[in-house]
Automatic annotation (TrEMBL):
Pfam families: Pro_dh (PF01619). Pathway: Amino-acid degradation; L-proline degradation into L-glutamate; L-glutamate from L-proline: step 1/2. GO terms for molecular function: nucleotide binding; proline dehydrogenase activity. GO terms for biological process: proline metabolic process. InterPro entries: FAD-linked_oxidoreductase-like (IPR029041), PRODH_bac_arc (IPR008219), Proline_DH_dom (IPR002872), Proline_oxidase (IPR015659). This is proline dehydrogenase. It is an enzyme of class 1 (oxidoreductase). The keyword Nucleotide-binding applies. Its cofactor is FAD. Residues 19-266 form the Proline dehydrogenase domain.
Length: 276
C-alpha cells in the first residue's frame, strides 16, 4: 500500500486505482498519460511481464469512458536486452491498444533505437504513437528535422538525464534558450501533434504565443503532483492538458526522485509527515 505522503505523485499500485485517478482529473478536463513504473530490465521475462501489464491496461482504457493514453519506457520493454526485444514488446502493446501510445526517451545511448522504433510505428499506425525528445541533447535539432514530416506526436522536454558535456548542454540558461528555439521550430514546421512537456510557466507562455502566431495544434503535459492547480487553470483556457501519471508497485524510487528534484516537493513531503 502506498502511504499518503507518496499519493501526491503516484496514483496507486494497480491499474484500477490509476484509472480512478484519471476519472477524477477528467472531471476538470485534464486528460491522463498512464505509466507503469519499472525500468532497466535485463531479464526478458521482466520485460515481457510489464508488456503483458501494458496490454491489459490498454484494454482497460479502451473499455472505459476515460480520456487517457499510455506511455512506456524503452528499458522497461527490453531495450537494454536488444533492439529486437524492445520493438517486439512495443509492437504487442501498440497492436492491443486503440488508445494512443507514447514512447518515453531515456539516456542518449538509446536515442537512435527509440527513434527508429517510433518512425516505424508512426507509419504503421498512421500516427497513433508519440515519442519524447530532450532539448538538452545537442543532436535534438537534427532529430526534429527527421520527425517533422512523420505522423504522430512529439513531446519536447528539457531533459532529466546527466549526459556527458560533449553531447549535451549542461547549464540551465542554455537549455532554456535551446528549448525555446526548438519549440519555435516545431510550431513552424510540424502540422500539429506538439507536446509541450514542461512545468515552466515561461515555456508554456511561449507555446501559447507560438500557437497564436502559427495556429499549430499543441498540448501541455505535466507530472502528477506538480503544479496541478495550473493544469486545471490551463484546461479552463481551452488548452489541451495531459497529466503524466505513474502507478505500480515500484513507486518508492520514483517518489524519492520527485521529492529530491524540487524544494517545493521536499516541503510538501515534510508537511505531510508533520500532519500525519
Amino acid at each position: 500500500m502506498i502511504p499518503p505522503i507518496a499519493n501526491n505523485f503516484v496514483a496507486g499500485e494497480t491499474p484500477t486505482e490509476a484509472l480512478s485517478h484519471i476519472e477524477e482529473i477528467n472531471d476538470d478536463d485534464v486528460a491522463g498519460i498512464l505509466n507503469l513504473l519499472g525500468e532497466h530490465y535485463e531479464d526478458p521475462a521482466d520485460a515481457e511481464g510489464d508488456t503483458d501489464e501494458y496490454v491489459r491496461l490498454a484494454r482497460m482504457i479502451d473499455s472505459r469512458d476515460v480520456n487517457a493514453c499510455i506511455s512506456v519506457k524503452p528499458s522497461q520493454l527490453g531495450i537494454d536486452i536488444s533492439a529486437d526485444v524492445f520493438e517486439s514488446n512495443l509492437e504487442r502493446i501498440i497492436n492491443a491498444a486503440d488508445c494512443f501510445v507514447w514512447i518515453d526517451m531515456e539516456d542518449h545511448t538509446t536515442t537512435d533505437t527509440t527513434l527508429d522504433a517510433y518512425e516505424r510505428f508512426a507509419h504503421e499506425t498512421d500516427g497513433n504513437v508519440g515519442v519524447c525528445i530532450q532539448a538538452n541533447l545537442k543532436r535534438t535539432g537534427d532529430d526534429l528535422k527527421r520527425l517533422a514530416d512523420l505522423p504522430g506526436k512529439v513531446r519536447l522536454v528539457k531533459g532529466a538525464y546527466d549526459e556527458p558535456a560533449e553531447i549535451a548542454h549542461k547549464d540551465k540558461e542554455t537549455v532554456d534558450a535551446v528549448y525555446r528555439d526548438l519549440l519555435e521550430y516545431m510550431f513552424q514546421e510540424f502540422e500539429g501533434g506538439i507536446g509541450v512537456g514542461s512545468h515552466d510557466p515561461a515555456m508554456i507562455a511561449h507555446a501559447r504565443e507560438l500557437h497564436d502566431e502559427y495556429e499549430t495544434d499543441y498540448e501541455v503535459q505535466m507530472l502528477m503532483g506538480v503544479r496541478e492547480s495550473a493544469q486545471v487553470d490551463l484546461s479552463k483556457e481551452d488548452i489541451s492538458v495531459y497529466q503524466y501519471i505513474p502507478y505500480g508497485s515500484k513507486w518508492f524510487s520514483y517518489f524519492y526522485r520527485r521529492v529530491r528534484e524540487r524544494k517545493e516537493n521536499i516541503l510538501f513531503a515534510a508537511r505531510a509527515v508533520i500532519s500525519s
